Amino acid sequence: MAKTATPTKTLADEATINTCLAHTxxxxxxxxxxxxxxxYSPLRAYSSEDIQNPRYSYLLPRDDTPSSRHATAxxxxxxxxxxxxxxxxxxxxxxxxxxxxxxxxxxxxxxxxGKYTTAAQAYEQLRIREKMRTLFIDQADAALxxxxxxxxxxGYRIASGLTYDYSAFPxxxxxxxxxxxxxxxxxxxxxxxxxxxxxxxxxxxxxxxALEYLLLDGSLSARLExxxxxxxxxxxxxxxxxxxxxxxxxxxHFKETCTLVQASEGKLQTGExxxxxxxxxxxxxxxxxxxxxxxxxxxxxxxxxxxxxxxxAYSHPASVLFLTRQMVSKDLEIIMPRLLHGSAVVEALDxxxxxxxx
Amino acid sequence: MVAWLKVEHDYMSDEGYIDYFAVLGLxxxxxxxxxxxxxxxLMKALVLKIAxxxxxxxxxxxxxxxxxxxxxxxxxxxxTEERERYTAQRDEVIALEAQxxxxxxxxxxxxxxxxxYDGALKQFLSTYMxxxxxxxxxxxxxxxASKWDPMHERHASTVLRKxxxxxxxxxxxxxxxxxxxxxxxxxNERAQVVSTILEGGVV
Lengths: 358, 203
Description:
Chain A has helices at 14-26, 30-35, 68-77, 80-91, 100-112, 116-125, 129-145, 149-161, 179-186, 203-215, 218-224, 229-243, 247-263, 277-280, 290-296, 305-315, 344-348; strands at residues 323-327, 333-337. By secondary structure, chain A is an all-alpha fold. Chain A has a two-stranded antiparallel sheet with strand order 1-2. The longest helix of chain A is centred in the middle third of the chain and has 17 residues, at 129-145. In chain B, helix 6 packs antiparallel against helix 8. Chain B starts with a helix and ends with a helix. Chain B has one domain (3-199). Chain B is built from 9 helices and no strands. Chain B has helices at residues 3-7, 20-23, 32-52, 57-77, 80-105, 111-136, 140-146, 150-173, 187-199. The chains are: A mainly alpha, B mainly alpha. The interface between A and B is large, with 39 and 34 residues.
């Protein structure tokens, strides 16, 4: 039987190539940018894939009106030297060599769009990840010194996102804000004593733990330790608001829960060993399971304390810093609000409740 | 001054391919008896230094790393077979780098040799910058000399992982770019971009 030749096609047209590349650069999309150059890319010659096929429509911009990012990226890829390099790469079989200027722009766009994992990978390929991280930290420190908290906090968050090293020996899981897992570690040990309870830590320690947990990078939170307390508090407040735009919702749930417990004549104790009896002896007034459900804003059917904790950490990362585990009976453990009355951390995050409730 | 103090701040003196003979201040012709003797001297000096100094996190990491290096050097060099295996792997990875650099200078296709080298380098760093170092911590003689315990091992694995990455980066810095065209970074422009991003503007 005669062997039929594998059907091949020619290179996609120049305008389509440019549009596809510009789209991936503007979106900070490293995966698809690299895909455009792979041997089975629909843009390549010697590939059986066709860019006109609807299944590749994701490589093209959806909007008819391109963003300013797209326009800038398009102007870059239309530069003759870059265009010539791209053409050679797409025409020649074998290993690809990505052009560095578009890759750099892609990385910058990824940072601006909050895609720090992608940005870290792209900067890593350019071998400038560590230096870029240092630049962000330096400018963030300068902004903090000038009292520009929004800028300073953003700089630290970006630096944290660029910490992960993708080069030689990547971790099994990519870097991501894994607050749900970190919250479990934070509450891994049942608090037997006041000092075991995260929410009741002395103010200074509480800020330190909070910053370490929220920044996801011990070296960055350690840099902040020399800053004045007032600045660290403002930093924490700004950080919480940047990470969690719906923090006010949690504040409402938190206060509602405190009122609920108070209404049932139980008390949320601070500074003393938590009293289980105060909740359980008044259980005709309050089903303990309502406490985590009110905190979360919904009930998890049959939910354990850790399920509530993980979901709260996912929705409102900072919330777990003001909670504690509480056994209410032999078979039931819940999470409930707990705070150190008069703590500046509590005040800064609007969680202060009337003293009689606290 | 003992040998480990001389090298403690210059881990790239061996081009990133850890030279365990140099770690112990010995030559490649040294006998197992010399390895044992030198290891004991250096480890004793290190343990005394640790006991004398106030331990900060940075110092703890540095001491831990130095302890790992000494333990691994002893474990590998005292055994003839192990020593030969290590020397062969090290020579191979160094030769592959030289070969790649040479071919690259001639501007011929280097993809295959680059892949071979990268694989060999990762293998070398994994084996001799992590596995053997942690394994040495479980060796009876090393435990006795260095007072190594499970707590050391837990911290050491983090320290070694970071150190291994640093070495890999340092090595990469002197190598030609392969997957991307050689960048020409303007750091003033970079600082401006960072500033724009922090302002929330379009880059």
